[in-house]
Amino acid sequence: MTVRKEAMDARVDAVDAVIVERMRRITDRVMHLTLRRADGERLPDWTPGSHIDLVLGDGTTRQYSLLGDTRDPFRYEIAVVREHDGRGGSRHVHDVLQAGDVVGIGGPRNNFRLVPSPRYRFIAGGIGITPMLPMIRAAAEMGAEWELLYLGRSLTSMPFADQLLEAHGERVRLRASDRGRVDVASWIGAFDADTKVYTCGPVSLIEAVVDATAAWRPGWSRVERFEASDAGEPARTTAFEVEVEGSGRVITVEPGVAVASALREAGFDLLTSCSRGVCGTCETDVVGGDPDHRDAILDDVERAAGNCFFPCVSRSKSDRLVIAL
Amino acid sequence: MTITSTAPSLIPTTDEDPFSEAVLADPLPFQHRLREAGEVVLLERYGVYAMGRYDTVRSALLDWQGFESSAGVGITDFRAETPWRPPSLLLEADPPHHNAPRSVLAKILGPRELRSMAPRWQADAEALVDEVVARGTEFDAVESFAEAFPLRVFPDAVGIPDEGREHLLPYGDHLFNAFGPENFLVEHGAPHIGEHSAWVNEQCARDHISSGGFGDAIWAAADRGDLTTEQAPLVVRSLLSAGVDTTVHAIGAVLHAFATHPDQWARLREDPSLARVAFDEAIRLEAPVQTFFRTTTREIELGGVRIPERRKILMFLGSANSDPRHWHDPERFDLARDPSGHVGFGMGIHQCVGQHVARLEAVSLVTALARRVETIELTAAPVRHLNNTLRAWKTMPMRGTLA
C-alpha cells in the first residue's frame, strides 16, 4: 500500500458524478445542458462524434452526443430533446432536473469517429445536429472543405440553426419539411474518394442515405441514429457485492466508491493507470453478474458481451459481480 | 550547482545541463535538486522551463490544451525550425489531427486485441530462455534478453521482414537522442541516421508488410477510410520508432531491478502473477523514457511562475516517478507497492499507446525466466548506455542458477 492511496481514490470516486452547471431552453423541445465536475477537475478527453451516458437520479441511463468544444477540459455540453413517446429520461431532464443537480456520467465513447478527409458532407436531421457541431469545428481546423445539410420540421424547431447560418453562411443549407422535401441522394451526389459523408438523424433519413451510398466503398459514408438505444437495466444507486473468484472473498462496494478502490482496500493487487476508463490497464474478466460499463474503451458489442470490465470506473447492475483477478 | 531565485521574476533558475554526460549517467541527484528548487525551474542554458514534481508533471501531461505537442516534443521548436524527419502523426500532433491515428492504433494495440498474442509470446519467451541457458548460465542480460526478445517478437508482430532488423535499435536510439540538444550524442548518431531512416521508411510501405500483423491492420484501417493512405506509413513508422528501444530498455530495467533485489525475485517466483506489477514498478523506478518536451499555447502560471506563450517546457517523468511528495520510499523496488498512476508511460491523450504490448512482452519474458531460473545476480558492474531521452543499459553481466 502506498501513501498516494487517499488522494488517488478521491479522484477516482469523483469521476462519474458531475454537476449541471447550466440549463438553457434553446427551442420549444430542446434543452441545452452544461455539465462540469464538482471538484473543478478535468473531465475525460473526448473527440468529435462522442457521446456520454447520462445517469439520472433514479438510475435511468440515456446517451447524448457531446456538442461542445473539445478544447474545454472542464465542461461537457449536451442537448436533450423532449420525447413524446413517454420514455422517462427526457421528461425528467426537462421537468425535474435543475442547475446545481448532480448526475452520473459514463464514457465518453465514440462510435461515430470523424476520420480524415479532404472534404466532408455533413447531414443532420433534427437533434442529430449535435455531433455535427464539434465535427464541423474539427474539419475547419484541419483545413478540410465541408458542407452541411440540416433538416428539421420547422426553422424554429431546429437547434443551433441560426448560429450555424451566421457563422458559416453558404456552407450550411437548412431545409424545414414544412417548406417541402429535399432530395438527399442528389445533395450527396456520386462517390468521390476525397469526400466522406456523415449523417445523424432519424431512421428515415439514415435509410435514405444508406440507400444512396449503398454502392460506395465501405467507410466513406458513416451514420449514427440518434434515438437512444435503451440502455437496459437502470444503473444501481445502491451498494453491490464483488466476488473475487477463487479467493473465497466477497467485498461490498458502496455508492460513490470505485470498484478499484474497494478491491485495493480489501488487499487485492490491482494495477490501474489512468483511473478514467481510458487506457485499458485494469481490464478485468467478469465471470458472473451484469457489469455497468462506464469506460471509454469497449464498443457496444463488447459491452453487451459482459465478460470484462474496467474497475477504475465501471460498476455493477446486478447485486453481485463475480470477477477473476 | 547553484539554484538562485532572481528578482523580479522569482523563477528558480539553474545553469545545470540535464543533457550532460554526468547527469545522463546518474540523473537522480539532479532530479532531486530540480524538485526541491520549485514546481517550475528555468534551465538557463536552454531557456527551457523544467518540471520534476509528480503533481506538476502529471497535470502538464494531461493538459494538451495548454501544452501542445505539434511544435515538437523535443527541444526543437517545429514552428521555427525544420524537424529532422517528417513529424510523427501521434507523438508530434495535437487534436484534431491526432484523433484518427491515435484511435486506430489504440484499437490495434488494445489489451483485448493482444490477448490472442499472449500464448505465442509466452512460448517465444520460453524458447529464448531455453536457448540462452543452454549456452551457459552466465550471460549479458541486455544482449541475451532485453534486446533479443523484443527484436524476436515485435517486428514479427508488426509484420516487417527479417532482413535489416539491425537498423531498428540505432534508428530509435538516434530518434530519442534527437529530442535533446545537438550534443555529443546527436553528433555521434547523425552520420548514420540516413541509412537507418531509409530502411525504416521503406518497411512502412504496404508492399513490405506481411498480412495478419499490426502493420497490416494499420493499412486495413486506411482501406476503411479511418486513415488516409498518406498517413498509414507514418503510423507504421510510429510503431517502429517508439516500440523497440523503449521496450528493450524497459525489460533491461526490470531485469536489473530483480538482479539487485533477490528477495523480490524470490517473491515473484512464489507468485508469478506479480509480473505485471513488477514491470510497472520497474518502469516507475527507471522510467526508460526520462523526459519529453511540450510547448505552451498561452501564458501559463504554475507555482507562482509565469511561463510565457510558445516556450518549451521539459517534463521529467523519471523525477515525477521518484518524487517523495507522492511516493513512499520512492527509490525502493518493491513488489508490495502499488505503482498505479506512475507517469513512466506518460498520461492523458499521448499516453504510450503501445504500453499493453510492452507489458505483455515483459511479462512473457519475466515469467519464462522465473520458471527456469531460481536466482539471478550481477557478476560485474553493469554499464549505462547514454541517451538524451532514454535511461538504458549497454551491458548487464549476469549469472543465473537453474531451478
TrEMBL record, chain B:
Sample GO molecular function, one term: iron ion binding
Tell me the SUPFAM superfamilies matching this sequence: Cytochrome P450
Per the UniProt record, one Pfam family is p450
The reply to whether Isomerase figures as a keyword in the UniProt entry is no
Could you list this entry's UniProt keywords, alphabetically sorted: Heme, Iron, Metal-binding, Monooxygenase, Oxidoreductase
Q: Which PROSITE patterns match?
A: CYTOCHROME_P450
Q: Which CDD domains match?
A: CYP199A2-like
Q: Which family does it belong to?
A: Belongs to the cytochrome P450 family.
| Protein name per its UniProtKB record | Cytochrome
Q: Which organism is it from?
A: Agromyces aureus
